[in-house]
Amino acid sequence: MPNMSLEKVSMPEQDPNVRNKNFLEVALGYTEDMAREEAQRCLQCKSKPCVQGCPVNVQIPEFIKLVAEGNFEEAYNKIRETNSLPAVCGRVCPQESQCEQLCVRAKKGEPVAIGRLERYVADWNMRNGKSKTEDIKKLNKKVAVVGSGPAGLTCAGDLAKMGYDVTIFEAFHTPGGVLMYGIPEFRLPKDLVQSEIETVVKLGVEIRTNMVIGKVLSLDELYDEGYEAIFIGSGAGLPSFMGIPGENLNGVYSANEFLTRINLMKAYKFPDCDTPVKVGENVAVVGGGNVAMDAARSAKRLGARNVYIVYRRSEAEMPARLEEVHHAKEEGINFRLLNNPTKIIGTDDGWVKGMECVEMELGEPDSSGRRRPVAKKGSEYVLDVETVIIAIGQSPNPLIKATTPGLETQKWGGIIADEETGATSREGVYAGGDAVTGAATVILAMGAGKKAAKAIDEYIRSKG
Amino acid sequence: MFKIVRKEVLNPSVKLMEIEAPYVAKKAQPGQFIIFRIDDAGERIPLTIADYDREKGTVTIIFQEVGKSTKRLGAMEAGDSILDFVGPLGVASHFDGLKKVAVIGGGLGTAIAYPQAKHLHSMGVEVDSIVGFRNKELIILEKEMAAASSRLFIATDDGSNGNKGFVTDILKRLIEDGNKYDMVIAIGPLIMMKVVSNLTKQYGIKTIVSMNPVMIDGTGMCGGCRVTVGGKTKFACVDGPDFDGHEVDFDEAMRRQSMYKSEEKISNEKHECRLGGEVNA
Ligand SMILES: Cc1cc2nc3c(=O)[nH]c(=O)nc-3n(C[C@H](O)[C@H](O)[C@H](O)COP(=O)(O)OP(=O)(O)OC[C@H]3O[C@@H](n4cnc5c(N)ncnc54)[C@H](O)[C@@H]3O)c2cc1C
Ligand SMILES: Cc1cc2nc3c(=O)[nH]c(=O)nc-3n(C[C@H](O)[C@H](O)[C@H](O)COP(=O)(O)OP(=O)(O)OC[C@H]3O[C@@H](n4cnc5c(N)ncnc54)[C@H](O)[C@@H]3O)c2cc1C
Ligand code: SF4
Ligand code: SF4
Ligand code: FES
Questions:
Q1: Which one of B89, B121, B147 terminates a domain?
Q2: Which of B89, B110, B145 is where one domain is finished?
Q3: d(CA A128, CA B243)
Q4: Percentage of residues of chain A with pLDDT beyond 90
């Protein structure tokens, strides 16, 4: 008999006033009983609408049934058939607009907590799972993958399972992409990311760090080294600035820089780790996506007293995950919605002392279908802050395009790739993830990596 | 891991190391740099590629011990290894069609200017090198610079080498004497590059400077290295580090350089007390 409760079994969390001072994970995860109870809420729909919402087709009712039965090992194997990073996805997928959005239980009450169950199963496996060595028949063919974010890892993992010798070339000293340098520890523990990466390495994938493709080696030189096809999953790492006066004052960061200092370089452990970060008492974060929430919540944890999110549209248009907005509010982040920065004001010696903002109102819908914010004349005011973090978006880094003749890109830098296969304008070169779409989501990047792996396999087979 | 195969002490605080890094050595060109990290708790630190040997697969760096990371590196010996060494990064310098050039090095900037002088010299360009140091004890790369230049001028702030003055004094004299330079390359402290640029602007001589803002990734991903050039924001790690000296906003660059002064002091003091501890133990 299914559990007909209208609400999800709630997941224990650290108290907001405790967690906003530490970098430990916010959400603590289900216990076995909670997971089995929540799993009972799934109606095992024959038509599986939820699966349509998952970019990598996790077999949702099947794995949930196994959870309900307490067979976590099989549940894990079921998820892993299509998703190589379940502990990550369970935590960071915007479930409300993907799998859970289409769940029939959401028609009345809350959907089944698919993400939380996925997380439970992945975490269970990390604690109890036996590492299984898969029996892979080697094809003796080499494929190169550029970038070790979710797109690259997924593509590499799938190709390795098919028997290819896959090498990932990563620019940074640590693999994982945004999972390591962007999303903070309190939302996605780094040990866990590394252990999911470990499962990909166990499939025989080699990861070579410190390899900036386009600088150390060009794509053409990868062919010279015997790779038969290349997947580009280099992400969208180029930070955008607003182009307003005062952006180069001391105390203005791109969210990328701020988060990289904290996550990848562990500035929150300064001076035990060597990289510093400046936070100040009053911090303004500009933007309304996951990146902005992460920067704001990190600033709070590093001791800032007042942290503002300054976003030019209203809450309904905010692209961040629902849960993150909710958590940010609980932690005392101050939301200045329908506000837009106009300039950053500095002290005589060049440090930020304030940010001038103007109030906005929503006008006619623009090309994205969202109502366009327009400035209210005369509503300017100054927010007193010492730090400004700009989180208004990223675009793909031009390095690879600049060093790869014949690789076509959009004007804004996205690599042009076939939606179904990831094929680019260069034969044998495939691309996917943020490098193609611009900043999007982990799971879409994984979906793209998966499709490209299949297409690369077909391409190499067709060459014989 | 990247092995240190040779170490030389050039002056009390400046050291040279040759590092085994075949991929970097294969592609390196004058004007480019690397980023190293000693270990897992270390910072990512940029250093110019001073020289490279494609056959041996090694890259030479010359660095001044100014803070924690460079001191820790300086304390390592041939045979030791460091964790990360990535490059070559940045845009290589372009020197086509030059006949006569003045290369100016200020202090440690001499190490960064050296590969440029050497490269130009080997292309048959007439190179007048002008290098300046605070005093005689700090002079580095004298032999190397002499070999890479048509003429070498060495100035000291205190005159302890018998040639008192600033590099700009010498440059000005050479220009006034009628030397026609197609280009001036100035590398050193920001204030020196600013003064040189102001001088050459009066004479309308194209001037290239090498910017060294605080960097993290070195691949265009953080924007921390931004400098204003000709009123536009540029990322020194991917658009530079060489820029037109007449276009650079040096005042802003100097301000940005000082952003982490207090943290650098903490880091350095912690390092010193750790070293002290080791000696006592
Ligand atoms: C702060 C932040 C929070 C986010 N929160 C969420 C969230 O909650 N949920 C969600 O679904 N999505 C979130 N996202 C978005 C998500 O992380 C990205 O969409 C996803 O990581 C894209 O994956 P990718 O593999 O395409 O690229 P990336 O993860 O960006 O990985 C690209 C990798 O390629 C490497 N690389 C780049 N250039 C080169 C080169 N020339 N040579 C070699 N390697 C190179 C990079 O160093 C990097 O490791 C967030 C993003 C950020 C920045
Ligand atoms: C492109 C480039 C090329 C360089 N080439 C050389 C070189 O060939 N030889 C050499 O001795 N030095 C070079 N530098 C400077 C060198 O990177 C700094 O001296 C070094 O980072 C100091 O680190 P620290 O921990 O020892 O000192 P800290 O105490 O941390 O800092 C001392 C000073 O170094 C600068 N600095 C600190 N961290 C960084 C960073 N991450 N990136 C850049 N600058 C920083 C700051 O101005 C600071 O005031 C170069 C810098 C750049 C950007
Ligand atoms: S991978 Fe993401 S979208 Fe797919 S089922 Fe899991 S949480 Fe939902
Ligand atoms: S739609 Fe909801 S209830 Fe139906 S199978 Fe999927 S998760 Fe279960
Ligand atoms: S060092 Fe990060 S963009 Fe240049």
A1: B89
A2: B89
A3: 56
A4: 77
In order of A242, A449, B21, B76, the CA distances from B2 in angstroms are 40, 32, 6, 12
Q: What is the CATH number of the domain that holds A36?
A: 1.10.1060.10
How confident is the model over B189-209, as a mean pLDDT? 94
Predicted confidence at residue A437, as pLDDT, reads 94
- Give the Cα separation of B267 and A181 in Å (integer): 22
Query: Which residue range(s) make up the domain with B115?
Result: 100-257
Percent of chain B with pLDDT over 70: 93
Q: How confident is the model at residue B54, as a pLDDT?
A: 94
Q: How do residues A82-102 score in pLDDT, each as one tens digit?
A: 888 899 999 999 998 899 999
Closest-approaching ligand to the CA atom of A46: 4
Count of CB atoms situated within 10 Å of the CB of B23: 20
Domain count, chain A: 3
Closest ligand 3 atom, residue A83 Cα? 1
Q: What is the CATH number of the domain that holds B56?
A: 2.40.30.10
- pTM for the full model? 0.90
pLDDT for A3 equals: 85
Checking if the pLDDT of B274 tops 50, the result is no
Strand, helix or coil at B69?
helix
Among A92, A4, A100, A6, which residue's Cα sits nearest to residue A50?
A100
Q: Cβ–Cβ of B27/A215 closer than 8 Å?
A: yes
Query: Over 50: is that where the pLDDT of B260 sits?
Result: yes
Which among A260, A270, A278 is the nearest to B217, CB-wise? A260
Which residues does chain A have within 8 Å of residue B23's beta carbon, measured at their own beta carbons?
211, 216-217
Residue A113: give the domain boundaries. 16-128
Mean pLDDT of chain A: 92
A231 HSE (CA, 13 A, CB side): 39
pLDDT level of residue B120 (50, 70, 90 thresholds): very high
Q: Take atom 1 of ligand 4 and give the residue whose Cα is closest.
A: A103
Q: Residue B248 has what DSSP assignment?
A: B
pLDDT band of residue A132 (cuts 50, 70, 90) is low
- Is residue A136 situated within a structural domain? no
Contact B260 A274 (CB under 8 A): no
* Mean pLDDT, rounded, for B54-60: 95
Residues 6+ away with beta carbon under 8 Å from B148: B114, B117, B118, B121, B127, B129
Residues of chain B contacting A253 with CB distance shorter than 8 Å? 224
Residues B83, B121, single domain; the answer is: no
Residue A73 reports pLDDT greater than 60: yes
| Whole-angstrom distance, CA of residue A114 vs CA of residue A444 | 17
Decide if A263 contacts A183 (C-beta within 8 A).
Answer: yes
Write the ipTM.
Answer: 0.87
pLDDT at B277 over 50: no
Nearest to B86 among A212, A270, A278 (CB): A212
Query: Taking CB atoms and a 6 Å cutoff, what residues make up the pocket around ligand 4?
Result: A 42-45, 48-50, 60-61, 103-105, 112, 114
In the predicted structure, residue B271 carries a pLDDT above the cut 70:
no
Give the mean model confidence (pLDDT) for residues A231-242: 93
d(CA A99, CA A414): 27
Of the ranges A54-58, A285-289, A295-299, which one carries the lowest mean pLDDT score?
A54-58
